[in-house]
């Protein structure tokens, strides 16, 4: 048995992961199609974008929290800390900055984020499905999996920051999801400041995550050998 075969799940886990990744691939591809059709087929504007793709995006992004569980229990070889940070950050943008505020839904960062997310995830999950079901993943798909992030990750990150920036004024004005004194818990919490802390805190983390992905790319594409297998969330 080769090292690649050892790294693959078998039996029920293989079926489960194949179904999970197939569902995510289908969902994000559908979001990408919705996104392109919204602007280039129907000629709609940014104001109605989230009403068209919001429910689908929310569902499949929240579903991605299972990937943290996958990493924790060890059914995939993903780094738990990195998986958690990436998933939590995206979920906060989707559920908080965008779905939770009308200003976030009108941010110029929304179309930028949605395009980068949906295209990246369509490639990523199709790679995972192919890795689970095929003896050899098509070379083009491997190359896309470990290359498309180079322009899309920083663009998506910028889009997320713009969504957070557009959303923060709404939370400041309305106090939504904040807790002021007095209250029975004798505790105060400002979601407005939380959004700012998230945005500022993620700035120094971006280079680390970006360089980590380059490191993963070098492991797979950096040699003249056939592409190796990788994680299968």
Notes on the structure:
With 233 residues, this protein is mainly α. It is built from eleven helices and no strands. It has helices at 3-7, 11-41, 49-63, 66-73, 80-98, 102-105, 109-133, 139-145, 149-174, 191-202, 205-221. Helix 2 (11-41) packs antiparallel against helix 7 (109-133), helix 3 (49-63) packs antiparallel against helix 5 and helix 7 packs across helix 8. Residues 1-6 have low confidence and may be disordered.
N-to-C order of helices and strands: HHHHHHHHHHH
Helix content: over 70%
The Cα radius of gyration reads 19 Å
Class derived from helix and strand content? mainly alpha
Give the number of DSSP strands.
0
What sort of overall outline do the alpha carbons produce when their principal axes are compared? globular
Query: What is the mean pLDDT?
Result: 92
| Main sheet properties | none
| Low-confidence blocks of residues | 1-6
- Alpha-carbon distance between the termini? 22 Å
Beta-strand content: under 5%
How many helical elements?
A: 11
List the helices and strands and how they pair.
Elements: H1 3-7, H2 11-41, H3 49-63, H4 66-73, H5 80-98, H6 102-105, H7 109-133, H8 139-145, H9 149-174, H10 191-202, H11 205-221
Helix pairs in contact: 2-3, 2-7, 3-5, 4-5, 5-9, 7-8, 7-9, 9-10, 9-11
Supply database-style keywords.
single chain; 233 residues; mainly alpha; 11 helices; globular; disordered N terminus
């Amino acid at each position: 048995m080769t090292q690649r075969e050892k790294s693959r799940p078998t039996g029920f886990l293989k079926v489960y992961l194949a179904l999970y990744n197939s569902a995510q691939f289908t969902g994000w591809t559908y979001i990408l199609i919705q996104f392109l059709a919204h602007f280039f087929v129907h000629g709609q504007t940014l104001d109605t974008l989230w009403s068209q793709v919001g429910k689908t995006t929310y569902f499949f992004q929240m579903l991605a929290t299972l990937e943290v569980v996958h990493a924790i229990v060890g059914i995939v070889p993903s780094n738990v800390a990195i998986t958690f940070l990436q998933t939590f950050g995206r979920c906060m943008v989707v559920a908080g900055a965008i779905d939770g505020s009308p200003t976030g839904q009108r941010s110029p960062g929304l179309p930028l984020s949605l395009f980068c997310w949906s295209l990246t995830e369509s490639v990523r999950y199709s790679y995972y499905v192919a890795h689970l079901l095929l003896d050899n993943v098509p070379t083009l798909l491997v190359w896309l999996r470990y290359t498309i992030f180079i322009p899309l990750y920083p663009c998506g990150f910028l889009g997320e920051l713009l969504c957070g920036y557009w959303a923060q004024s709404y939370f400041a004005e309305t106090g939504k999801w904040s807790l002021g004194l007095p209250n029975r818990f004798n505790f105060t919490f400002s979601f407005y400041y939380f959004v700012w802390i998230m945005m500022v805190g993620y700035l120094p983390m971006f280079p680390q995550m970006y360089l980590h992905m380059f490191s993963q790319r070098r492991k797979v594409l950096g040699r003249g050998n056939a592409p190796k297998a990788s994680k299968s969330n």
